[in-house]
Records
---
Amino acid sequence: MVHGEIGVNDIAAQIISTERLDLIPLRVDHSEEMAAVLSDPALYRFIGGSPDSAADLCSRYRRLTAGSPDPGVSWLNWVIRLCDESCLTGMVQATIGPGEHGRIAEIAWMVGTPWQRRGIGAEATRGLVDWLSRQPNVQAVIAHIHPEHLASAAVATAAGLTATSCQHEGEIRWHRSVGPARLNS
């Protein structure tokens, strides 16, 4: 179920509902709660960096919600809301840009430590990939995952992505063809 469009480029983030979750388009006022959700330094083991303060996230979220300066690229970001507990638990994102035969959506996800091992990342990512597969001209979804990040590999697998032999900056490229043509690449 999808409703409530928000965004600046031709593909806009929408609320995406799954069995237990709502993926809510990112707003600047999510920064304080998300700073707490993403505060565990262990979350950054494979991706680098460290937790941002609420003020830093506020600045980042302002830039993200303003949209990509490239009119051919859409930045789409959501927070993950666990409906039963009425709290934010993480985030998913997609950068949609030009590909060889249509658009490519590069996705990423992060679930706060207290909510891990509950299937939230897999459910949110499946919901995102299903939504992306219905967007105009999106031909494929990709993700880049550190080879030792087994939890992220499990999330990608649950969302129908398959590991490829391609690597980028030490991470494995995962791929799933989507959309009406289901082109292989």
---
Amino acid sequence: MDNQGTLALESDQVADFFELGFLVLPGFLPAELVGRLEPEVDRWVDSGLRDRSIAACLDPEPSGTPGLLEIELTAHGELAGYPPLLSIISRLVGPEFVFHHMHSNRQAPGAAGKEWHHDYEQGPLADRSKIMIHALHYLGGLDRTVGALAVLPGSHREVAGKRARAHLGTVELPGEVVIEELPAGSTVLLHSALFHARRPSPAGQRRERYMVDSSYCQCGVSWPPVKPYWRHLLARGRELGLDGGRWPELFAERHFTEYVRPS
């Protein structure tokens, strides 16, 4: 950490991110923040707020908005604009980047895995000129009781659709790296074009998996939003001051195209 409490990246960590497409930050989030995030995740899931948020994305009217956003939960809002995280992102993509979206979930013990995919939103397909980053925050860490994250180093340099490897399920692939042991509060930063998969936990002892992911896009191109209520999301980020007065582009609308409903 530097004298402002920000994790200072070494040059080789920056180089590894660009070469491999991911960066592992064990125990990155302080226990105090994790302790406030977990009950907010419980509320988000148990009250039906998560389901209503998903339903709002399926609303035929782009103006439809959910009653509450993840970033309106106090600790989630802090996480979206968490200064040490944004400082690291600025080291990777430069000083101007914009918040894209946040997802929060508590997965049941023994939940199924998720097939190989990537989450890069830029189009057309051949455009990889700017970087999108997904920050995967594992509140309870990772171990065999919650499954593992498998990543395919270097695959972020491919020009491929999100589901180009989905037919493979979660099978082991040559060259993959499996991240399966991380302490509570750990974060994995992914170049969003990196192929990755969620491996289910093996049979036996299992526990719930708490994860919040937030994504950020390098400025310089127009990014497609994934939520029809994206303007409302950005406006709330500005109103709540989640940029901390330091990142003026973090919730700026001008970096997005219009929302297009998936076909």
---
Amino acid sequence: MISADRPATRLATRLAFLVAGFGVACWAPLIPYAKARLAVDDGVLGVLLLCLGIGSVVAMLMTGVLSARFGCKPIIIGGAIGMAVFLPLLAVVSTPLTLGVALFLFGGSLGSLDVAMNIHAVEVEKASDRPLMSGFHGLFSVGGFIGSVFAIFLLSVQLGPLPTMLVASALMLLAVVIIAPRLLTTTAAEGGPLFALPRGFVLLLAVLTAIVFLAEGAVLDWGALYLTGAGLVGAEHGGMGYMVFSIAMTVMRLLGDAVVGRVGDRATLFWGSVIGIVGFAVVLLAPFVAVAMAGFLLVGVGLANVVPILFRKAGSQKVMPSGLAVTAVTTAGYAGVLLGPAGIGFVAKLTSLPASLWMLTALMLLVTLTAGRVAGSKH
């Protein structure tokens, strides 16, 4: 068995997070193209995004069992390959049914990879003498930034959605070749059930994680449509908001361990959520694109280190076994980022996209109001 405390295993974990961020960011600029190609409204698009979320959540629930039985390695490899294979389909399918199926498969691959790489990250961090989770999540943001820049650039030079996604898939498969031999063959197994619903303090962590991930999902899935719908940018530059958000998220997460160590968990949670709320308000009130980009920057800066703190608290609490708590919080969080945007679509259908985003902004106040309890809890 490969030791968990080795540069090679840390590299493999970081690359797994990078591939996940890269793949999902490549999907973001495709959303306006998909909406135009299928000629659907926000409500139908919300249903299609729900297919992605359902596929992800189903895969997440299965991943906990499969990881305990077979280890994370085959699931990480399979999830990354699945994302690379299904990504080009998202650029060409031409009916709501086929796009829904493709999104379900793409989401399943993403969900499997997300949970397995977080379990793998916990094992690698446990074997180390220093915190690593913020850095791992930072590489997801690095992947998001690289994927956004990559896709926007190739689409801007008129390469076309399909060729752009084929190149992206090739890069992801190359990363898998590097990752595979460096992953842990097995992970430490815990006694008891393979999965448990979150309860008590862990339930609070799960809810907060879902809210923060929902905010990230809103930037990913609806940021481009908001910018284009408001007439601030053209379709080919719709991914600029997510790109700016990813830059801010990347820098702050790579600095995360130092920042949190200096100001503490409570201040990071409180002021981070406040800055994120202000950022969304700036985006929604922006009269022109530069102001909107400043808002996306604030959202990224504010929310960057909230989730790593929530993951750390899940791993240190005593209400549930740490492995089960991390799995539950991971599943809740990614359910927020993947299922939540579909809910935004439904609310946007009934009201408007700006109104639904204002509701999300208000929901984020729960993170602000519970910062003291989360940071000071001894559970």
---
Amino acid sequence: MELSVLVDNNTLIDRYFLGEPGLSFFIQEGNKRILFDTGYSNIFIKNAEKLGINLRELDWIALSHGHVDHTWGLTHLIRLHMEAKNENMINKTPTIVGHPLVFESKLFDSIGEIGSILSYEKLSRHFPISLSKKPLWLTNQLVVLGEIKRVFDFEGTEPIGKVVTEHGEMDDFIQDDTALVYKSSKGLVIIVGCAHSGICNIIEYAKKVCKEERVIDIIGGFHLLNPSKDQLEKTTQYIEKLKPEYLYACHCTDLRSKVALSKVSNVMEVGVGLQLEYP
């Protein structure tokens, strides 16, 4: 599997890409091409072009959750594919996958709407959509976890604004938060968006779904933004016992958390333009 960072808060030194407070990865697994999240704007397309990645030929678009910094780039992807069809360019229509709540309205008092700018109905006119709480295997080795089981009491317990569902407006615990997992020959590679459900919860569920205890790498946002002392201590204790080879903590992981994690694991540099390969 090959993974390329198209959007992150940071860019690599002396690599002239664009960054923003969002996240988007391109993944190639065998002959399947997957876009994981789309960031906030159109820079994932510009960065992909500079890396020689053609986003007109995708098999899947996997959404980690419905927040603005992970889904608002979808409007630009629609334009890219619509224009390709109009110009008779080679174009493949991808299927969008995610949790059933990923396109519901998410409200935050000081801002308003912080969820997907596109409804399920609008988006389904451009791309087929498959939403499920259950794990979905995109290839024999790559799976979307679906709804994450929350087993630890120190993470994934605080709501962020409100979510509007068929049952009305309620506290949003980001139940739509999910992740991708790749079963490599050495162990699991866990790919997260913001880890709102808790990075330790995600790892535990990934091991259960994939029936594999070895974890070699975790990349993405760990949702450790000014975490409590208790959460940070218990997270670092968990990671220390897990013993992954690498941690590529980025996006919504603050410096204090990276420093704490670096004391128990091998925390690596992340930025737009980073490309990784796994066996």
